[in-house]
Queue: 2 jobs
Job 1
Amino acid sequence: MTAQTDPPELQGVTKGSPQDLAQGGGTGGAAPEPLAPAGRGTGRGRKGSSEGGVLNVFSHGVLVIWGVLVTMPLLWAVVSSFKDDSEIFGSPWGLPSALHFENWVRAWEKANMAQYFGNSLIVVGGSLIGTMLLGSMAAYVLARFEFPGNRFIYFLFVGGMGFPVILALVPLFFVMKNMALLDTYHGLILVYIAYSLPFTVFFLSGFFRTLPSSVAEAALIDGASHARTFFQVMLPMAKPGLISVGIFNFLGQWNQYLLPTVLNVGDPDKKVLTQGLVALAVSQGYKGDWSGLFAGLTIAMLPVLAAYIVFQRQVVAGLTAGAVK
Amino acid sequence: MQHGKYRFIAGFLILPLAIYAVFVISPFVQAIYYSFTDWTGLSSDFGMVGFDNYARLFQDGVFWSAVGNSVTLLLLLPVVTISLALFFAFMLNVGGRRTKKAVIGGVRGSGTYKILYFFPQVLSVPIVALLFQFAYNPESGAINSALSAVGLDAIQPDWLGDPQLALWCVMAAMVWANVGFYVVLFSAGMSSIPKDFYEAALLDGAGRANTFFRITLPLLWDTVQTGWIYMGILALDVSAFAFVQIMSVGPGGPDYSTEVLPLYVYQKTFRDGQAGYATAIGVSLLIVTLIFAAVVMRLGRRERLEF
């Protein structure tokens, strides 16, 4: 541990402390790299002193190892998707001798990846719009209006976050069967909405509570109805919260596996992407078409990763929003 | 005005509440009711059997291995994931070179690390589970061929095929998938801790380990506790189901060594046609979840520090 500070070091700190705080305070991601200090030690200032150097090497080492552990399986899948089957089995770590793009074509067309992608888009498109609309409506009413039963309904929604979903799925399967909703897009959309409501209501009602009430009051005095105030005044004001929870729901619904596995198994053509991948793994396992399977995995993986890299800041904010509150 | 207000409230609540009631609340209530019946799920007639299903649980060996595995995941997965995440986040924020002006500093490129670490979080469980399933493949998987490549031909475990190892293999994949999220979460929390706290501690001669346990962890406690509950629910419910169902042989095998409660509920309902018994297993899962949440809340209760 090199943290035992030597006296000269301390002097430097105490002398420059006000300035120091101003610089050091708001550093989020980037390494704080203070300007060259006014006092002594200017020569080593920019690169930092050798104090903590050992620790620095150690932390970089540890961090790089985990970085490699995270990226390697993903890269491995992408590389394998260009190999042929014998290369996948013969040399799992080797590079492909030629780029077999036909794997991708085969996965997209023959293995129904295109179909699964389309199904996921339809279901998630419908359920995301529904979740956001219904969730924000319920959250708004619960956050800003007093009426008997308000707290009860709020906790009814919020309580749904902690209960084991699998328990409800047993009866739900038969409820949906009786309503002829199994293996339909609209049935799946309704279920996705229902299971996304707890978090959406919890998060957005917290958000609506923080918005100033004076704007809504002004709109009401100007003669706007409650509904119009909501859609034209309050929703636009809640945009940051809507974006966060929207990203959260999109990823959650796009990656949903349990609900479709239970409620959407009758019709192979209706499978969503996550189910399709598992079905592909089973069927390609029999056929021995591993390269097609890796291509399928890569096709499923790359768009999400690309979208994440582009909207990195928003995605992180959206996914961590629920936990920091 | 008042009339208009209540009409508005009802109008806005009716649809979300109706959907929620039909697809979430009523199935929950029904599930608890069905756990006292001998319903098969295949036909609509069934009879009340009182506590028979619950009595049967005590004789069911598979149920108890599922409880054992679920509780193992529940106890270990949050500890391992959160400790690793705290360690990496601390390295990112405090592991940097000490400069003249800043006593503590983040490492260079911490933004890049965070972007990389977050990758698994945006991928679906099937993608991660299938990738690991290939990596674990005993003949041509990445891990065993890497072992032979470095001359460890003698060590070629069966991984998911070995009852001793299978659960740990699944858990490793779950840790891999979840650490990044908590690194980013904790890192955000750490960077909002005022730097002069650290400076004061270092002035007083505290080491880095000391500053972590005396400053960072207490100030981050609320976030850690929330993360703990999230991870626990994940280890018990949806995520555990998906990982085990996709990765393990059987699924749940070999020899029930990876059987977990949500998977057993699923199998009893849709494979064995014992929906009534399955809901009793589900209710026991609910009880484990509630005990866990209560314990974490109770143990974690401390005075909230404002800074």
Job 2
Amino acid sequence: MTATGIHHRSYVSELRLRATRAEYVRLALMGVLLVVVPFVLDNYWMSIANTILIAVIGAVGLNILVGYTGQISLGQGGFLAVGAYTSVILSDRMGLPTPLSIAFAVVFTAVIGTFFGLPGLRLKGLYLAIATLASQQIIEFLIRRDIGDFLTGGLGYINVERFSFLGFQVGGRDVFERQWYVILAILAILAVMAGRNLFRTGLGRSFMAVRDQDIAAEAIGVNLTRAKLTAFAVSSGFVGLAGALTAHYSEVVSWEKFTLEVSILYLAMIIVGGLGSIAGSVYGAIFMTLLPVVIRNVANALDSVVPFLGDQLPAVQNATFGLVIILFLIIEPRGLNRLWERIKEFFRFWPFRY
Amino acid sequence: MIRTRRGALVASLAALTLGLSACGGADGGGGGDDAAPINIGIIADLSGATGDVGTPYNQGMLAYIEHLNAEGGIDGRQIEADSNDYAYEVPQAEDLYRQYVNDGVVAIQGWGTGDTEALSSRVASDELPFMSGSFAESLTDPEEAPYNFVVAPTYSDQMRVALNWIAEDAGGEAEVAVFHNDSPFGQAPVADGEAWIEEQGLGLGYQAYPMPGGQQNYVGLLSQAQSQGAKYIVIQNVASPAALVARDIADQNLDMKIVCLNWCANELFITTAGEEVAEGHILVQPFAPLAAEKEGHGVITEYIEAEGIDAADVGTSWVQGWYVMHVMAEGIRHAIENNDGEELTGAMIRESLETMGPIDTGGVVGDGTVEFSAESHRGSTSTGVYMAEGGQMVEVEAGATP
């Protein structure tokens, strides 16, 4: 009974995560999809699914900061690097169990993120973007130059041992992607649930108050300093988790994976997916990870008809990437999530316009 | 109630299309019977930062495969190579790699140092022999990188040869500036060069400068080198930026000599800089250029004549691609001949490369042969030293070793 919109008769009902039966059906379908994926996809597509799951965690993290708290960050790549290097150094060099080192990496990235969030107390908008750009450049400089060879021992990169925990070790190339899928899917679901629920708490709502109007937020009793720094910490924690997982999944850490381009890719994910929406982060991560792969497959398929596409593939991918962002900003600035909501509303109110 | 059901229907349709669209493409598995083609994956840089030499390298490699297939392939089996551009982006290389693994390739030809290092532990656990355009020293140790094979002398060995040559040319003390690409590729020989000077007591001053990408000129770097008092500039970068440095030196009338390593030691450097500007600069190049007319160049000359390719378009990078592929093909041939009837695997190719003894390259690579062993994946230690004279690479020293 939603043709006239969704109405609540009690606070309990309003606080519920899902209000309609269709939403439960969708949840069940998502569950089925997640379970079915490893049985239908081959190893290559599984590896893309895994990349998406890691991107989901990172995008949720970034959206907490940018979409929900309104603090623009170009430092994503750097924070991913902090998570990756910390976890690998702790697990492979200091001999800590991998899950424990990942947990430490999350905490440490949160601390570093909070530190680089300090300028956010004074700066807003473009100025903050430049300040976080500085954090990206500083971290990139440190891992790239590796002064004193502390990080990589002079090699420039670190090979990471295969993920193992309590006697279980991820297997060879036949099962590698599927086993990682299970690990990553669980963590991604936890991240999404944590993100979704964060904004039903007072803390999450204070983030949104800061985003909507910081002076008004302060007037109604939100501690701006605390809210902003906590947002940086929580967001960086998610990002640190994504970074650590990238390291253990891809089994190598090098600075080339954590450049400014990565920061921009993640920003693109949440813009395309929908700022200020956890579901949007998921859609964005899926979309932006699949886009280059789909373009390559299309280019390969059309090779005989339009050889130009295949010959200039990286350029075509970059151009499409830019085009997609522009199109989204023009057509639906609130991203895929809003698009999905509009589709739902269209069917819900049909045959009426609204 | 009807409308919620419609919502559910739409949702399920959306989920279904999402699932279906993700399943397209990719078909897996290599065959086991004799006539089945041998699948190889190639990760090439055609449009990225090192595309100027990456493109001819890739062309040379594909030309060799075409030549080999025309001759009947290996033991009657054709080589089927899937070659894709990765634009010198490590994540793209990783993505291509995973695709190749899924497609059931038995070996991989890569390109850059960064991506080769990034993939080295992966290829080891997937048991896929991996050769690449990167000759970084860290890839020659089978304990660190058991499935990486370095066909030519490493960048570090080339740096050592270059420093030896400089010490001799200067007749004692001199200042050396090292200009290197700001990446793992560029940094690869820097520390080893410094250690070599100390070890050999060469009496050379040594200072490394990363070359920022996308520059219009390198006047700033050169003035730093000038205040260091450098008379020699070793360049570890690709041809185009190295040619820019050569032009800046000429424009400012600096008394400096360039010593180019490997990827800028080619005809492209000379033609881009201009014949007069390049004159007298030194090129350390382990692969003999076509103009050197070694025995191993015969097959290439025949091939390009038959294909109608102008010999002037076949640079050293092209020859490199050809012979790196040749070494891999010989390894595959040995593996097939010695594992009769069994399905070809990467592990077999690795074992063959390690145990088959020297692979003849007709005098093109180093001192002519490439040999790997279980202890070392350093295929060769000797390199040619050339001087740019009248637009040609003229041999100064053949088979120089550190």
